[in-house]
Design brief:
The complex is a heterodimer of chains A (434) and B (250). Chain A is built from 13 helices and 21 strands. With 434 residues, chain A is α+β, with helices and mostly antiparallel strands. Chain A has a domain at 183-235 and 245-399: Alpha-Beta Plaits, CATH 3.30.70.2520. Chain A has an eight-stranded antiparallel β-sheet. Chain A has a five-stranded antiparallel β-sheet with strand order 5-6-10-8-9. In chain A, helix 9 (316-332) packs antiparallel against helix 10 (372-387). Chain A is globular and about 55 Å long. Chain B has one domain: Rossmann fold (3-Layer(aba) Sandwich). In chain B, 50% of the residues lie in helices and 16% in strands. Chain B has a seven-stranded parallel β-sheet, with helices on both faces. In chain B, helix 6 (153-172) links the parallel strand 5 (135-140) and strand 6. In chain B, helix 1 packs across helix 8. Chain B is globular. Chain B starts with a strand and ends in a 5-residue tail after the last helix. Classes of the chains: A alpha+beta (434), B alpha/beta (250).
Chain lengths: 434, 250
C-alpha cells in the first residue's frame, strides 16, 4: 500500500498499486490483489475518478507500446498506456496529428478515452472518443471485448467516457488527421464582457478550428478576457524549436501560492500583459495546446491542501446568464480563480453515455482548497448549473452531489448495466453507490 | 554504403534495454537485433520499435540464456549480416535473497542468469568484435556487485562476477578499437523491482538510466554508474571499515 493522489492533490489515501506492464498478462495481475481495482494512467483527473482509496490501482503506463501505424490512412493502433505526447511526437513529423487533444499531453490514451476528453476544437471535431475506431476492453472476469463505432456499439458507448468502470482499456485504434506540420496560426482578441465573448465565439466557429477564452474573474467586469483562436498552418520550413528546458515546481509551498492576496494582481498583470500581445502569431503546437505542460507539477502551487477544479457545461440558451451568474458568485464569495476558461461546445452529441460535452458553453474554474468556504461556493454554483440544466465534468470533480450527477447524466441507468463488478473508484462509490 | 548502426541487445525485453532501443532509433534508423527468451514479448517490442522507426531493420532471435550452444548460435545468427557496432547485454533477474539462502537451486539459478549468462554472451560477441577491431560491448552490472551485503549478496556476487569479467575484457582489448563498458545501475523503476517500489523505495526513472547508458556507450567509458550519484554512495559503502559496515542493516 502506498499513498496516491490525483492531480488536485486533495487526498493521499493508501492504494495497493499493481503495474500492468504486459497486456497478455494483465488478467492475471488484475485478479491478484484485493478487489475491486481501477485502471490508473497518469493520474491527471483532478478528483477521485482515478482513485480507489484502500483498493487496487492497475497502473497502465507500462502499456506504452505502439502496435501499428499506417502512414497512408492515418490509423494508429497502440496500447492504452501510450501518452498523447508520444503520439504527437511520432506522427506530426509524418504528416498526421491527433484530431482532439486536451490541455495537457501528459495523459494516456486509456485515460483520454475513459474521460472522453475534449479540446479547443470541440465545435469542429468533437471529443477524443469520436476518433476512436476500436478499443479492447478487458473485464475482470477474463472476458475481452472489442468494441467501436461499428462493433459492440453499446459497450463502446458505455466505455467512452465511462471513467474506467466498464473494464480496463488495454489498446485502441485511433483515426488521426492530416497535419501540415507542428505550427498553429493563432490570434488573440481581448473581450470586455460576455456579450463580446459569445459574439467572438459564434463568428469564429466556421473559420477557426480552435477557440477558447481565458476569463479574468477577479478584476473588472465579469466576462472580461482574452479570446484565443487558432488554425493549423503550414509555416514552411521554420526551424524546429530548441528542446526547451522543462521546468518543474520543485516543492509544495506551505500555503497555496494562489490566494486572495496574489490572485488580483496576478490576473490583472496577466490580462494586461497578454492584451499587449493581441494579434496574430505563429505558435508551435506544444505551446498552443499545452501551455501548462511547460511547468511540470504546477498543481503543487496550490499548497498542501490541494485544489478543486469546477467545470460545468450549460445549454447555450441560458448559457450567458448562467456563466455571468457563476462569475458573479465567485466574485461575491471573494474567491477567485486564476485559471478560468470559457469555451463554447459544438452542436453535437458525444459518443459516450457519460461523456461530459453537450451543446452549450463550458466554464472551468480552479480554486485552492479552503475547506468549508470553498464547498459553500460550490453549492451556490451547483444551484446555477442545476437551474440551467447543465452538468459537471466527472474528470474534474471531487465533490458534486449525487442528485446533480444523476440529473446531468440521463443515461446513467443504462450505463450501470455495463459496469464491471470487479472495478470501483472513489468517484463511483460517491456518485453511483458502489 | 549502408550507414545504419548495427546494434544487438541481449535481454531485449528488459525495461532498460527497451528504453535504450527507443533512444537509439530516435537518433536514426538502425539495424537492430533483439535477443530474448519470450517470443511473444519480443514481438510486441519489435512491433513498437518498427512503428517508431519504419526505416530500421529489426530482427528478433529467440534464444535461451544458459546453454552455451544456444548462445553461440544466437550470436552467430545475430552477426551474420556483419559485425556489430554496439552490443548491450541487459538481461537479469532480481532474486529473493531469502529464497537463495534456503533453496540451493534458486541460488544457482540466480548466479547463472545474472552472472554466467551475461559473460557467455559477451564472450561470444567479443570474438567477432576482436576480428573486426571495432565495436562497443556494454554489460549491465549493478551497484549490488560493489560490496556484498546481507540483503542481496547472491545477486551481488553474480553482478560482481560480471564486473570482474568486464575488467578483464577491458584489459584484453586495451589499445584496440573495441570498447567494453560496465554499467552499474542503482535501483531502477522496472518490473524487476516492482516489489521494492511497493515497499516505498525511491527508484530511478528507467528513461533516465537508459539515456545514461546510451551516452556511456557512445563515449566508451569503462564504468558508468546510473544515476551518477551511486558512484559516490558506493565509494562510501565500499570503504566503510568492516566494524562499521557490519553494524549497518543494508
Amino acid at each position: 500500500m502506498r499513498p496516491v493522489s490525483s492531480w488536485g492533490r486533495l487526498s493521499a489515501y493508501p492504494h495497493h498499486v499493481v503495474d500492468l506492464n504486459d497486456a497478455s498478462r494483465a488478467i492475471g495481475l488484475m485478479s491478484d490483489g484485493p478487489h475491486p481495482g481501477l485502471a490508473h494512467g497518469m493520474g491527471r483527473s483532478y478528483g477521485d475518478a482515478c482513485l480507489n482509496p484502500k483498493g487496487t490501482l492497475w497502473v497502465t503506463t507500462g502499456l506504452d507500446h505502439f502496435i501499428a501505424f499506417d502512414e497512408i490512412t492515418g490509423r494508429l493502433v497502440c496500447e492504452a498506456g501510450v501518452l498523447l505526447r508520444d503520439i504527437q511526437r511520432l506522427v506530426i513529423p509524418r504528416g498526421w496529428i491527433l484530431p482532439v487533444t486536451p490541455g495537457t499531453q501528459l495523459v494516456t490514451v486509456g485515460g483520454a478515452i475513459a474521460n472522453d476528453v475534449h479540446g479547443k476544437n470541440h465545435h469542429a471535431l468533437g471529443c477524443f472518443g469520436d476518433h476512436v475506431q476500436n478499443l479492447t476492453l478487458l473485464r475482470t472476469d477474463g472476458q475481452t471485448i472489442q468494441c467501436g463505432p461499428d462493433a459492440h456499439t453499446d459497450w463502446f458507448a458505455a466505455t467512452v467516457g465511462g471513467l474506467g468502470l466498464t473494464g480496463v482499456i488495454t489498446q485502441a485504434e485511433i483515426q488521426l488527421r492530416r497535419a501540415r506540420g507542428p505550427w498553429v496560426r493563432s490570434e488573440t482578441v481581448a473581450h470586455a464582457h460576455l456579450d463580446e465573448f459569445f459574439r467572438l465565439a459564434d463568428d469564429s466557429e466556421a473559420d477557426w478550428e480552435h477557440t477558447v477564452s481565458w476569463v479574468d474573474c477577479v478584476g473588472g467586469r465579469p466576462g472580461r478576457g482574452l479570446f484565443m483562436r487558432g488554425n493549423p498552418t503550414d509555416a514552411g520550413d521554420r526551424p524546429a524549436l530548441p528542446a526547451g528546458r522543462r521546468l518543474a515546481m520543485p516543492f509544495v509551498p506551505p500555503v497555496s501560492l494562489v490566494n486572495r492576496v496574489s490572485l488580483r494582481p496576478f490576473n490583472m498583470a496577466y490580462y494586461h500583459f497578454k492584451k499587449r500581445q493581441t494579434g496574430q502569431a505563429i505558435t508551435h503546437y506544444e505551446s498552443f495546446f499545452y501551455p501548462l505542460d511547460k511547468l511540470l507539477e504546477w498543481n503543487r502551487m496550490y499548497g498542501p491542501r490541494g485544489f478543486f477544479q469546477y467545470q460545468s457545461v450549460v445549454p447555450r440558451a441560458v448559457g450567458q446568464d448562467a456563466v455571468e451568474a457563476m462569475l458573479k458568485e465567485v466574485a461575491r464569495a471573494g474567491e477567485g480563480s486564476f485559471l478560468a476558461v470559457l469555451k463554447t461546445f459544438g452542436n453535437r452529441s458525444p459518443v459516450g453515455m457519460l461523456s461530459f460535452p453537450q451543446p452549450g458553453v463550458t466554464l472551468a474554474l480552479d480554486f485552492p482548497n479552503r475547506g468549508e468556504r470553498t464547498c459553500r461556493l460550490f453549492e451556490s454554483l451547483d444551484a446555477i448549473v442545476r437551474e440551467a440544466k447543465g452538468r459537471l465534468y466527472p474528470a474534474k470533480d471531487a465533490r458534486m452531489p449525487r442528485d446533480l450527477f444523476e440529473a446531468g447524466y440521463p443515461h446513467l441507468t443504462e450505463f450501470m448495466k455495463y459496469r464491471d463488478p470487479g472495478i470501483s473508484s472513489g468517484l463511483s462509490r460517491r456518485l453511483m453507490g458502489h | 554504403m549502408d550507414k545504419k548502426k548495427r546494434i544487438a541487445i541481449v535481454g531485449a525485453t528488459s525495461a532498460i534495454a527497451e528504453q535504450c532501443a527507443r533512444l537509439w532509433l530516435n537518433n536514426g534508423p538502425c539495424q537492430l537485433v533483439l535477443i530474448g527468451r519470450d517470443a511473444q514479448r519480443l514481438e510486441r517490442i519489435a512491433a513498437d520499435l518498427k512503428v517508431r522507426s519504419p526505416q530500421s531493420d529489426i530482427r528478433m532471435i529467440q534464444a535461451g540464456f544458459l546453454d552455451p550452444e544456444a548462445i553461440n548460435s544466437a550470436v552467430g545468427d545475430a552477426v551474420q549480416s556483419g559485425p556489430m557496432d554496439l552490443v548491450l547485454i541487459a538481461h537479469g533477474s532480481l532474486p529473493d535473497q531469502k529464497e537463495c539462502q534456503n533453496n540451493l537451486p534458486s541460488c544457482r539459478d540466480a548466479l547463472e542468469i545474472n552472472g554466467i549468462s551475461p559473460v557467455l554472451y559477451a564472450e561470444a560477441f567479443a570474438q567477432g568484435m576482436e576480428q573486426a577491431n571495432h565495436g562497443t560491448i556494454a554489460l549491465i552490472g549493478s551497484v549490488a556487485g560493489d560490496r556484498g551485503r546481507k540483503s542481496n549478496y547472491v545477486y551481488g556476487a553474480a553482478k560482481g562476477l560480471v564486473a570482474r569479467y568486464a575488467q578483464g575484457l577491458q584489459h584484453r582489448f586495451a589499445g584496440t578499437e573495441v570498447k567494453v563498458v560496465l554499467i552499474k545501475p542503482g535501483p531502477t523503476d522496472t518490473p524487476m523491482t516492482a516489489h521494492l517500489k511497493a515497499r516505498g523505495a525511491k527508484l530511478a526513472r528507467v528513461e533516465d538510466v537508459a539515456k545514461q547508458i546510451v551516452c556511456a556507450m557512445e563515449s566508451g567509458k569503462s564504468v558508468a554508474y546510473t544515476p551518477g550519484k551511486w558512484l559516490l554512495i558506493m565509494r562510501v559503502i565500499q570503504h566503510l571499515p568492516r566494524i562499521v559496515f557490519n553494524k549497518i542493516n543494508i
